[in-house]
Amino acid sequence: MRRILTKSNYLSGLECPKYLWMIFNQPEKKRRMTMAEEYKLKEGQIVGEFAKQLFPDGVNIPIVDHTETLKKTKEFMKKKRVLFEAGFQAKNCFSRVDVLVPVGDAWDLIEVKSSKRLKDINIHDVAFQKYMIEASRVKIRKCFLMHLSNEYVRKGELEVEKLYMKEDITAEVESILAETERRIGNMFTTVSAKQIPKAGIFLPKVIKDGVHNCCNDGCLDLPEKHVFCLYRGKKLATELYEKNIKQLKEIPEDCKLTDKQKIQRESEIKGKTHINKEKLREFLGTLQYPIYYLDFETFTKAIPMFDGLKPHAQVPFQFSLHVVGKAEKEPEHFGFLYDGDSDPRKEFLFELQKVLGEKGSIVVYNKSFEIARLKELAEHFPEHTEWNNAVLKRIIDLLVPFRAFSYYDPKQRGSASIKSVFPAVTGKSYEGMEIRDGFRASIEFLRMTYEGCEEEEKRKIRENLLKYCELDTLAQVEIVNELKNLLK
Predict the structure, then answer these.
(1) How distant is the alpha carbon of residue 363 from its chain centre?
(2) Which of 55, 83, 89, 352 could join 94 via S-S bond, C-beta 3.0 to 4.6 A?
(3) Which regions in the chain score pLDDT beneath 50?
(4) 273 and 113 in contact (C-beta within 8 Å)?
(5) What pLDDT does 2 receive?
(6) pTM higher than 0.85 for the full model?
(7) In Å, what is the CA distance from 49 to each residue of 53, 156, 453, 459?
């Protein structure tokens, strides 16, 4: 059977030979795209479509099948037209090119990305394309990466010519071209081999900024409490796994571990929760009533939708707030979920100011996120700067005692995220909810608000969003209550 190496498979092969082998020989084991990956792909396609506006005379090559793509590419190249999605096949490799621009008897290759900076993986991406095109006897003059500008701020109508930055990466591509050809040859040897090759995690890293993860993509046979759960211990975990030490409880006593890793190992072996009461008491002592437990939900779009936004800016659309007025008092809940079809930020800020009192601790989980959003809101609405500064001084991060391992339960599997801590501390979880994470919440909000859902579906989404965000702050309340109970 003839094997065709595509650009995406080539990049996968650079990261992990075993995963590349699986793609060709055990395709049924290739995991499905996550919702986040599907969203990122869709956003990339939108960025690519906007970029075409910079080449008004360009021609779209139809994406039907390889044969038709190759035929149409040759046809329009003869006419010296700017081409979008041109296809090339040579030496059993196939690739499409985002933009191909005629320059005399040669062409400029332009790769369009939705990121805001040049990444190492982009150089390998373009090198594969250049190799392919020149193997098809087409001369490439220069190679460019066109990505979103981190300096662009939308003001009024979208200015597409300012939205993108174009970097000349010809020299970088040329420097790895010979290596690209060699690697392509090695990959065909790999996928034809009967023996499964080593997973990429055990090999020297070829590219930075990759997306493949051997632990998540089925390249490793992992038990539930595996060594890759070791807190900030990927390198050590890799060494342990190669020695056939796969579980946390199997880590030898003489293995050099950090203090947090030692806590993990000991908790796993004993099956007990590690509790540093002194540190927990110290943290809880910083909380002042009334206590406001706060959480934001946001969405992000590669192409800024509203004034004052940069590409990929976070837009807050929902918050949940549980207020505990005094010790032993039941919390009172307040919530906001934008119900319009435009920019939610002004109403979000207005509603937050109504319910966030002037004194008392404001508790969040991973404060860098909420602090960044509040600063961005103050920048866009400078009349609220004084209020914002006062609020920032009151914020306390509930992540702190868990990140410090002042409390650690084996159920956390090395994670200090609220989704891991909440069930470990309280025995409760997000299971059974329609929306169980922030990314799903943002996707559902976008669909409900800007993509024309039916009214009944909107009603269900709103209900699910409100339940999810409310649990995020109720979880904080219950975690703090449980910590207090431990100290009684």
Answers:
(1) 25
(2) 89
(3) none
(4) no
(5) 72
(6) yes
(7) 7, 20, 24, 32
Q: How far apart, in whole angstroms, are the C-alpha atoms of residue 83 and residue 429?
A: 51
- Torsion over CA: 216, 217, 222, 228 (sign): negative
Positions of E strands within 325-424: 332-337, 362-364, 395-397, 407-408
Query: What's the CA gap between 410 and 275, in Å, rounded?
Result: 12
Domain ranges of the chain: 5-192, 221-271, 280-486
Q: CA neighbours within 13 Å on the CB side: how many for 407?
A: 29
CA-only gyration radius of the chain, Å: 26
- Contact partners, residue 427, CB within 8 Å, separation at least 6: none
Q: Whose CA is closest to 264, among 414, 438, 448, 53?
A: 414
- pLDDT (0 to 100) of residue 367: 97
Query: Residue 328's pLDDT is what?
Result: 84
Q: Identify the sign of the CA torsion 322, 323, 326, 329.
A: negative
Write the single-letter amino acid at 60. Answer: N
Q: Are the C-beta atoms of residues 178 and 144 closer than 8 Å to each other?
A: no
Tell me which residue of 253, 325, 215, 299 sits closest to 43, measured CA to CA.
299
* 12, 187 Cβ separation under 8 angstroms: no
CA–CA separation, 3 and 191 (whole Å)? 9
Question: Is the bond into 223 cis (omega within 30 degrees of 0)?
Answer: no
Task: Tell me what pLDDT residue 361 has.
Answer: 98
Do residues 163 and 311 lie in contact, with contact meaning Cβ atoms separated by under 8 Å? Answer: yes
Position 1 scores a pLDDT of: 55
Q: Which CATH number fits domain 5-192: 3.40.190, 1.10.3470, 3.40.1350, 3.90.320?
A: 3.90.320
Amino acid identity, residue 324?
V
Task: Give 254: exposed, middle or buried? Use CB within 10 Å, 0-12, 13-18, 19+.
Answer: exposed
**Which CATH number, 3.30.420.140, 3.40.30.10, 3.40.630.30, 3.30.420.10, labels domain 280-486?**
3.30.420.10
Q: Quick one: 306 exposed, middle or buried, by C-beta within 10 A (0-12, 13-18, 19+)?
A: middle
Q: 316 forms bridges with which residues in the sheet?
A: 298
